[in-house]
Amino acid sequence: MDNGHFREGAKAALPIVLGYLPVGMAFGVLAQKAGLSAFEAGSMSLLVYAGASQFIAVEMISKGAIWFPIVLTTFFINLRHLLMSSTLSLSFNKNSLRTLGLLSAQLTDESFAVAMSDTSKISNRPRYLLGLQMTSQLAWISGSVGGAFFGSLIDHRGYGLPFALPALFICLLVLQIKSPNHFWMMVIAGISSLFFKWAFSGNWYILLATLLALGIGMIKTEGGRQEAVGKRQNIKTKDSGGKE
Amino acid sequence: MNAEIIGLIFGMAIVTFIPRFVPMAFFSRWVIPEKVKMGLEYIPVAILSAIVFPILFFDGEGTFGIQPRLLLSAIPVFAFAWKIKSLWGSVILGMLIYWGLGFII
Fold it and tell me: pTM (2 decimals)?
């Protein structure tokens, strides 16, 4: 037990704080515009604490979605934490479930990236990670609550505000495109979502398009792998044929 | 305070906490299969696409169609985000263009 570790972690959070404060404020403003109070926006940042899913929830609330599709979409988009959590588990194998519960509840892409930049600092030093994550989340919550107060002062339709959320989603989407496969996922999910929204009422089009795109992606990579294996076998038979 | 919103927040909190907590607490030796990893990699891009495209091609009443003001705002934001990779910059640029187009369109 060493408070020095906590402080060290808190210091390492500084770049995250600079990012979370303004984006948290944007969340607060948009949440307020969608009808959430400062208390509700702050509660979401405290209890959920997952940026992309919070923005998506706000978008779906403003379109009048019922809670079930929102929770399901949240579940799917936050499933990626499985990877980060299982990676971190290697660094924390001597800690109580209570400590692990606290650490895992505050896991985000950004704090994970900072934590993994030097694994020697986190290895069985829960207070370091706690300092890093608590400072980050504090910035996120302060930004959200501040933004929600500020949001109540500005005009709903003014200053291009209706395009803030679409622009944010576009940037989040672009940041996710890391390979040609990601690009094709965008094309399939994007086009099929237009069809599903046209064909069905409610907000189910997001999940339907996501599942369709994932399904096609799985079949395609499977097919690609079999093709590659087939080609390799062809080469082998050719080679052995040549030898004989 | 709205009971429905509070319920929604708790629902979101629970489904977000589970995948964060379970591997860390119980699966220290669990190796995630490659195929599952790949699927998890693709989920965010699929969900975000399924949100962005309908915003750009449906109007407020839910009718499909070309929306010049939204599309003309979206294209530069795509390009900017691709080149600069700045979340805050993309939002400001998008709002500015959308606001400016309001005077023309």
Answer: 0.84
Assigned domain for B103 exists = no
Question: Which tokens go with A21?
Answer: 């404060």
Q: Is residue B38 part of a domain?
A: no
**Residues A54-95: tens digit of each pLDDT:** 999 999 998 887 889 999 999 999 999 998 998 888 888 888
B54 touching A (Cβ < 8 Å)? yes
Query: SS3 sequence, A201-217?
Result: CCCCHHHHHHHHHHHHH
Q: Would you say residue B37 lies in a domain?
A: no
In this complex, the residue of B12, B35, B52 whose CB is nearest that of residue A173 is B52
With beta carbons less than 8 A apart as the criterion, state whether A113 and A13 touch. Answer: no
Domain locations in chain A? 3-176, 178-244
Q: What ipTM was assigned to the predicted interfaces of this complex?
A: 0.93
Question: What range does the domain containing B3 cover?
Answer: 1-30
CB-based contact, B55 to chain A, within 8 Å: yes
Q: Name A141's Cβ contacts closer than 8 Å, sequence gap at least 6.
A: A24, A42, A45, A46
> Taking CB atoms and an 8 Å cutoff, what residues of chain A touch B88?
22-23, 26
Interface test with B, best of A45, A72, A174 (most B CBs within 10 A): A174
The closest CB to that of B1, out of A37, A177, A190, belongs to A37
B24 found inside a domain: yes
Question: Does A93 contact B5 at a Cβ distance shorter than 8 Å?
Answer: no
Indicate yes or no: CB of B23 within 8 angstroms of CB of A86: yes
Q: Single out the residue of B70, B57, B75, B77 nearest to residue B101, CA to CA.
A: B70
